[in-house]
């Protein structure tokens, strides 16, 4: 088995300071409980998923190596696209190599809309207005920066989950074509976008609503359809971007959308056009994972039970499987992470530039395959390096502001 590293390799095996290769050959590497990954449903090691990958690899190897528009698109990819479109209740779906490339492809395609409609460089009012949450994922931010370089979009950043601020920005915006893009479940803070309020603003202002559902796909909703299913607003979300590298336990990204949007992204989304498509065994495994995630609903029940268990054990009002314990300085975060590693828990210290200075944290992620006993052991270890009362107070203040 391969174990992740925090960079403190000496702590990974029984005798600190022992030679790594000797320790490995002697079987002295320690087993760790991983509370830092994104394999929310435990599907990365599911037999059905593994068998699908093995079967495809035996029959096709890695498959044709080329971009999807050249020779990299196969029936395996099409089956996966169809299953994801069905899951997200959208007309079609476009696979991308990663979730990052999916966001980049969509936003750069949006950047082309203004120039295409204007027949050249658009005037200010002909440009596309993009409204982005202040805590959106880096791939959304980078996609926007690239689109801005094209000179056909104008960006407005609204305060995190602040619908009053977004409403004010929309009301003052002179541009008619508007896009609001947000993470649905924020990867560092573990809070949900205010979907009901976003839907109300969409009806008021008529913008295109786009969500990055990376951390909620397969985790939220009765069938695993994500945040839009959870909040019963699937028809109000125009574009749903996601990943297959988290709860699906595989690799890849996707954009669930209309057929017209798919055609536009295929022709203008550079990170899609110029990337080699995912290997056939990966597509086969991901397609199997979609089926397993739908069928084995007990996994979603289990992960949300773990969320409730963590809250009961710590008193911290967590609302999702992503738990962000802000400790402050880099030194405190690293010290806590190393302490937990010694006790057998893999939890990474999150530091700048991922988060702002003095908001360094321990980012804990729960999984359906974690047990209540695992959580008891974890919270006992955490209590040695984190003050739960301070964390609880911090979370309460944060939620009241939203």
* Percent of residues in beta strands: 5-15%
The helix-strand sequence is HEHHHEHEHEHEHEHEEHHHHEHEEEHH
- Structural class, please? alpha/beta
Strand order of the largest sheet: 2-8-7-6-5-3-4
Q: How many H/I helices?
A: 16
Low-confidence stretches: 12-20, 396-402
User: How would you describe the oligomerization state of the chains in this entry?
Assistant: single chain
Helix share of residues? 40-55%
Cofactor: pyridoxal 5'-phosphate
InterPro entries: Aminotransferase_I/II_large, AON_synthase_class-II, PyrdxlP-dep_Trfase, PyrdxlP-dep_Trfase_major, PyrdxlP-dep_Trfase_small
Family: Belongs to the class-II pyridoxal-phosphate-dependent aminotransferase family. BioF subfamily.
Keywords: Pyridoxal phosphate, Transferase
What does this entry look like structurally?
- With 402 residues, the protein is of the alpha/beta class.
- The chain is globular, with a radius of gyration of 22 Å.
- Mean pLDDT is 91; it is low at 12-20 and 396-402.
- 47% of the residues are buried.
- The longest helix is centred in the N-terminal third of the chain and has 20 residues, at 99-118.
- It has helices at 20-25, 47-60, 68-72, 75-88, 99-118, 138-149, 163-172, 195-205, 227-230, 259-268, 270-273, 280-295, 298-314, 330-342, 372-382, 388-401, and strands at 33-34, 92-96, 128-133, 153-158, 178-183, 208-212, 239-243, 253-257, 322-328, 345-346, 349-350, 360-365.
- Helix 6 (138-149) links the parallel strand 3 and strand 4 (153-158).
- Helix 2 (47-60) runs antiparallel to helix 12 and helix 13 (298-314) runs parallel beside helix 15 (372-382).
């Amino acid at each position: 088995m391969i174990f992740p590293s925090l960079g403190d390799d000496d702590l990974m095996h029984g005798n600190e300071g022992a030679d790594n290769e000797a320790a490995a050959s002697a079987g002295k590497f320690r087993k760790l409980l991983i509370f830092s990954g994104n394999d929310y449903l435990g599907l990365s090691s599911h037999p059905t998923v593994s068998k699908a990958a093995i079967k495809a690899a035996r029959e096709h190897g890695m498959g044709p190596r080329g971009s999807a528009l050249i020779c990299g698109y196969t029936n395996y990819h099409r089956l996966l696209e169809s299953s994801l479109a069905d899951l997200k209740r959208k007309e079609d779906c476009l696979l991308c190599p990663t979730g990052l490339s999916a966001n980049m492809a969509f936003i750069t395609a949006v950047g082309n809309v203004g120039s295409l409609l204007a027949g050249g460089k658009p005037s200010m009012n002909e440009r596309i207005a993009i409204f982005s949450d202040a805590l959106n994922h880096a791939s959304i931010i980078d996609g926007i920066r690239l689109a801005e370089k094209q000179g056909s979009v104008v960006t407005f950043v609204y305060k995190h989950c602040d619908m009053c601020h977004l409403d004010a920005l929309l009301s003052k915006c002179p541009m008619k074509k508007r896009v609001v893009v947000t993470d649905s479940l924020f990867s560092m803070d573990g809070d949900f976008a205010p979907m009901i309020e976003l839907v109300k603003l969409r009806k008021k202002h008529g913008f295109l609503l786009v969500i990055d559902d990376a951390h909620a796909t397969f985790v939220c909703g009765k069938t695993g359809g994500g945040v839009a299913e959870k909040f019963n607003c699937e028809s109000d979300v125009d574009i749903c971007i996601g990943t297959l590298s988290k709860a699906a336990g595989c690799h890849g990204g996707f954009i669930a959308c209309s057929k017209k949007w798919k055609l536009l992204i295929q022709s203008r989304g550079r990170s899609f056009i110029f990337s080699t498509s995912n290997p056939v065994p990966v597509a086969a495994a991901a397609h199997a994972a979609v089926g397993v995630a739908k069928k084995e609903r007990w996994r979603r029940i289990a992960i949300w039970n773990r969320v409730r268990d963590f809250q009961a054990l710590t008193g911290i009002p967590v609302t999702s499987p992503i738990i962000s314990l802000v400790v402050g300085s880099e030194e405190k975060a690293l010290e806590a992470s190393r302490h937990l590693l010694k006790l057998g828990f893999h939890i990474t210290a999150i530091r700048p530039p991922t988060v702002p200075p003095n908001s360094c944290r321990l980012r804990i992620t729960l999984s359906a395959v974690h047990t209540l006993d695992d959580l008891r052991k974890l919270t006992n270890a955490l209590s040695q390096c984190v003050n739960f009362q301070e964390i609880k107070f911090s979370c309460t203040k944060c939620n009241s502001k939203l």
